[in-house]
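User: Can you help me understand a structure? I only have the sequence.
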Amino acid sequence: MKLEKEKQDRREKKKKSKHSSRDREKDSELNGKHKPSSKMKQSDSQSGVSSFSSAVNCEAGAGDTHEDVKVDPDERNDGQQKSCSPEINNNNQEKTRSKSSKQRHNHQERTADEQLCDEDENLRSQSSRNSNQVQADDGPQCESVKMKKKKRVKEEKSPEKHDKNPPSGRKRKKSSSEHDKAEKNKKMKKDGDPEEKKKEKGKKDEESDKWKWWEEGKSSDTQKWSSLEHKGPYFPPEYEPLPDNICFNYDGQPVKLSPVTEEIATFYAKMLDHEYTSKEVFQNNFFCDWREVRTRVMSEMTKEERKLIKTLSKCDFSQIHKYFVEKSEERKNMTKEEKQVLKEEASRLMEEYGYCLLDGHREKIGNFKLEPPGLFRGRGEHPKMGKLKKRIQPEDVTINCSQDSKIPAPPAGHRWKRVQHDNTVTWLASWLENIHGRPKYIMLNPSSKLKGEKDWQKYETARRLKMKVDSIRKQYRRDWTSREMKIRQRGVAIYFIDKLALRAGNEKDDESADTVGCCSLRVEHITLHRRLDAQEHVVEFDFLGKDSIRYYNKVPVEKQVFKNLKLFIKHKDPEDDLFDRITTVKLNKTLNESMPGLTAKVFRTFNASTTLQDQLNKLTTEGMTVEEKILSYNRANRAVAILCNHQRAAPKTFERSMQLLQEKIQKKKEQIEEAKKELKEAKKAHKDAPSDKSKKLLEKKEKAVQRLGDQLKKLQLQETDREENKVIALGTSKLNYLDPRISVAWCKKHQVPIEKIYNKTQRDKFAWAIDMTDENFQF
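Assistant: Let's start by predicting it. Here is the structure, written out as tokens:
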């Protein structure tokens, strides 16, 4: 009885607390003060989920049967939540997501009743064995709470009552996601594309890791490096024989050639559509080497082949030529994936062979791939064109590296000719080529320290000449009147080098191309005119310069120079040397005595850089657009190229590219005419009926005309630039004779992007100049 009384008291207290909480809620609603805080809402919502789940579990139980088991409240809630049906769980989640304050309030009321019902059910199950009165009192109340709960759950399941307009809700959700996407795109544009950021970061890291050797001071003139390690040269792959269905024919009959003979035949077959194979010298040299030349392994032809093949005119290479044309087309039509495979292979080779360690820094190698065998072409009418360039073997190659480095391994089954450790030279590997018997080298890339230091020193020497050039000019003028013929010739030769930027010229043998420089000029290369084209004392030059490029120029000279030239050619034949008393070695020795380090090439560099500086100062004015400034730069560069005779043949695609550019210009002119008509109509409409709308339209049309005009001007500048540079090679002087600091300073002073003047390779080569030069630099 005592236990029953305690349970009864506990139940009465619960009832009182329930009624008092309801009274407080009603009072607060009447006074309009029922505004729970956000923290209260969160805690109520969480308690509501667990109590709602327990109530649903009570409802989903087996009728009115209750087990007399005491369960911890937390464990009971967990278990009940797991036993709830998925449908009820979904409804419960929808309730907790509701944003309406009214729904939250109703939910709090309901969950409080359900919690009380749950506790009453537990008390009733405990006391049912002792007293029927407790069950009689609580039954109707629990039943009423159950009915209310069932009604509310049904209402929440009903889509009409829970969501009166679900499609609009979905639209809002979609529009919200689109809005979020738009905001995200705006943020990406503002903050930058992550991929672009990653690339920029990579570039910055690469720049930060770049070796700024110019900040470390000048290296020793004798010792070029302290440590040098590399992998050696990359040898071209071995020859792959032709398929069996591809035949070489001699005198109309198919002939199966030996692998070595066949390989050389393919060299000639690949060039059948080239003008070289139509030249007699090329044909004779090829056929002679094909039949007679021997390698260390075997002769190029077997005895049987040499006995059969006696005349080149009876040889038919057409099938082989067709085969390689088809292979070339296949390479052009490769899929993107196939090209990617080749690109990855090239990258792998570059990573393995294309870099070395120089004084602990990773430096790029210029030409790590050995030249494959083939036929020598040469420039112009070279007497050795068509001769066979043999395959280079490891036994022909000398390796140069530091003594403490790992010596590169030769290909399997081979060995190096020699391994040396000479830090006074800059090459990594060397061999003798068989055409001229001269050494060839693998060197570092132009962007490397060794190359950069050499360039820097060259331009600094040229700048020093600026302080000495007046005294040198006075000296060679005095030499013009010397009693000694040798001194007179030397004075005139230095005058030509200074005024015309001629190369000094080297002595040539009979097996070299007939190209000349200043000291190797012959009488036949000049013509003297006392008066020509309203000018006095004119010298007409006509000869083949370096790379068999024709030098043709009519130059007025000083009277004393003209008299000396008449004296030099007196009693000489056309093939005799003009300067027969001097040599290139003697001339450079004289120049070096005038200023240490001075050579004919330094004189060319000085005159080229001085011309560029003067022309840029003259042609660049304030108020120019970037395109106009670039045109001015190219014109200044062209003046240097003309001075140095840097010519080229017109590109094969020149006519077509100019035609396309002219079509663009014509189309742009038509667009401008149309835009002007629309502008005229807009002006008339605004004048007849002025309004904000017509004013905005008028401004829009004016801007369109202005924009199209700027585009037309840009295209016309491109047309002028291309036409003027049709046969002028601007790149040679830019890379070899023009101090890059002039161009960098000009770009910085006139706000021209350096990328407009130098491409990526050139920027790497001149990184030292770009880093150290400010806008006030003057050569």
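Now, to help you interpret it: Residues 25-113, 127-151, 153-179 have pLDDT under 50 and may be disordered. The two ends are 117 Å apart (CA to CA). Let me know which part you'd like to focus on.
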